[in-house]
Design goal:
alpha/beta, 24 helices, six-stranded mixed beta sheet, two-stranded antiparallel ribbon
């Protein structure tokens, strides 16, 4: 058996076969990620902020709105999205391509991290391959979200930190750890969870370093400067440090309700991916074989799991597992490899469990990057085309009516609709609205959608139309009998070449231009009663909230 390297040792150059295997794994993962490419509606929220910034309005959702609202949670990703937009490109394909490049970077960082923790180069390759085999990881190689950027930066920070010499840490490595950590925080604030664990570990790790004060300055100063400048700008521009989405998503349901959701979310991931039995490996590792690096990985995964439970999981299938998936997989491989004579059997069993879980999970989702609660992907040949064709047609039709610029709209999903129409939107769930995020009604609807505006609030905000996305019952579940007497219209919009599309619109605030639109292109349709809608949804086994019932207790 090859002796386990000490924490101070440096791994040599990996054998040619391992390097060739790594290249193959990265190439295959990038190809698979691109094959599964898709774009989530939420990505267009960031793209709209970026578009408005390019136009000179600043990072705002509705130009001219005061005070501006921070309705995104991914500053760095949104800032990057301004680049293709400034060049006159639709941001979807460039951002998807960037996601695949970040997938490759994440896998290389995973290999570097595993080389510092694993017994043999082949074990590091195995850990990398298992990450690359994850169906969820490959799905979020694209999606248009910041998930892969966060994962790459977090994994990169840990890989760099694992290579620090405890006595004489290299200056460049300390600065690089700091920059990766700062980038992760600017990408998503919840990167503070792995960042805090890593910072505590580094403080312990470098306690006996030569020139400890200088090492600490190199580690902290770059991150402090970048994050401090960003927070100062955020406070000056938005008037608060936390994004508006925190109030819309976190400050609502009781902690017990959120925790129950979070536990179900983690439990589903552990069972679907075969992780549950594999976690036992960590406890079986002989004490003598445990290293500080392994402890760092395990502590970080546990801290992240606690955060996910507190947050109540996510409505997107296992997205929250991705940022720490390289750390979790490396920890499991290292644990299996430390089991002495049973190591080879344990490694084989681990690989079979994780790959089988990934394959069966993907097959249950029909091989597409959508799980329960996820939005369907667009045409893989042109991911934005269905969104763009529909919503640009709506915009062109609406712009024919003088005075339509006064209209305000409410939509069940505001991403692609908001980006391609440029309409002034009032978000039903308050993600981009301060008042609704803080004072909206609360119901157990689902993660990130528990807050919602009252009908009176929408009317008070001057909402002209509320689009029900073809479902006449959509707003009944929120407003119940309040909608009695409301006008529901089916309105036709021109797609060009003689083609049309139609939308169901609730007409909430009278307007002369809107009256002309409805007279020329609409027809009034019956609005089902609340009882009819509830019976229909429950008969199909779908979730239905009961409007008018007391909201659940807030924290």
């Amino acid at each position: 058996m090859v002796p386990r390297p000490s924490d101070a040792s440096r791994p040599g150059r990996a054998p040619l076969a391992v390097r060739a295997g790594l290249a193959l794994v990265v190439a295959a993962a990038c190809a698979a990620g691109w094959r599964l490419r898709w774009v989530l509606d939420d990505a267009f929220i960031s793209f709209r902020y970026a578009h408005n910034a390019v136009l000179g309005h600043g990072l705002v959702f509705n130009p001219g709105e005061s005070p501006p609202v921070e309705g995104y949670t991914n500053f760095l990703w949104t800032a990057i999205a301004t680049l293709p937009i400034a060049l006159g490109r639709d941001p979807v394909l460039p951002m998807l391509a960037l996601g695949v490049a970040l997938c490759a970077a994440t896998l290389l960082a995973t290999f570097a991290l595993a080389r510092r923790c694993a017994e043999r180069p082949a074990h590091a390759l195995l850990a990398t391959a298992l990450v690359a085999s994850s169906y969820t990881f490959l799905c979020f190689a694209t999606s248009g979200l910041e998930t892969m950027l966060q994962c790459a930066l977090v994994t990169g920070a840990f890989a760099l930190a694992a290579g620090l010499d405890a006595r004489a840490p290299a200056a460049w490595r300390l600065v690089a750890v700091s920059l990766c950590g700062a980038g992760a925080l600017l990408t998503r604030l919840d990167s503070a969870v792995p960042g805090a664990v890593l910072a505590a570990w580094l403080a312990w790790r470098l306690r006996g370093a030569d020139a400890r004060g200088l090492a600490a300055a190199r580690l902290l100063a770059p991150a402090a400067a970048l994050v401090g400048a960003w927070l100062a700008w955020t406070l000056a521009f938005y008037g608060e440090l936390l994004p508006n989405t925190w109030y819309a998503r976190e400050a609502g349901l009781a902690l017990a309700t959120r925790a129950a959701r979070g536990l179900r979310y983690l439990g589903g991931f552990a069972l679907d991916y075969g992780v549950a039995p594999a976690l036992v490996l960590v406890a079986w590792v002989p004490r003598a074989a445990r290293t500080p690096r392994q402890a760092l990985l395990v502590a970080t995964v546990l801290a992240w799991a606690a955060y996910v439970v507190h947050a109540g999981g996510d409505y997107m299938e296992y997205r929250f597992a991705v940022p720490v998936l390289p750390l979790l997989t490396t920890a499991l491989v290292v644990a299996a490899a430390a089991l002495g004579r049973a190591a080879n059997v344990a490694l084989a069993a681990l690989a079979v469990a994780l790959v089988a879980g990934s394959v069966t999970h993907g097959l249950r989702n029909d091989g597409s990057p959508i799980g329960e609660g996820r939005l369907a992907p667009a045409d893989p040949r042109a991911p934005a085309e269905p969104f763009r064709t529909h919503w640009e047609a709506v915009r062109r039709t609406v712009e024919r009516y003088a005075g339509s610029e006064r209209w305000r709209w409410t939509l069940p999903a505001l991403g692609a609709a908001g980006y391609y129409t440029r309409f002034h939107l009032v978000d039903l769930h308050g993600l981009t609205d301060r008042a609704i995020a803080r004072e909206g009604r609360v119901a157990d609807i689902g993660p990130a959608h528990d807050k919602y505006a009252s009908l009176a609030t929408l009317r008070a905000r001057g909402v002209t139309f509320a689009n029900s996305f073809g479902d006449p019952c959509h707003y009944r579940q929120f407003f119940g009998a309040e909608l009695d007497g409301a006008a529901l219209h089916q309105v036709a919009f021109d797609l060009g070449e003689g083609r049309r599309t139609a939308m169901l619109l609730l007409y909430l605030t009278p307007d002369p231009a809107a009256d002309r639109l409805l007279a020329e292109r609409g027809r009034r349709v019956a609005l089902p009663s609340a009882a009819q809608c509830a019976a229909e949804r429950r008969a199909r086994g779908e979730h239905w909230i009961a409007p008018g019932e007391p909201a659940r207790e807030a924290d």
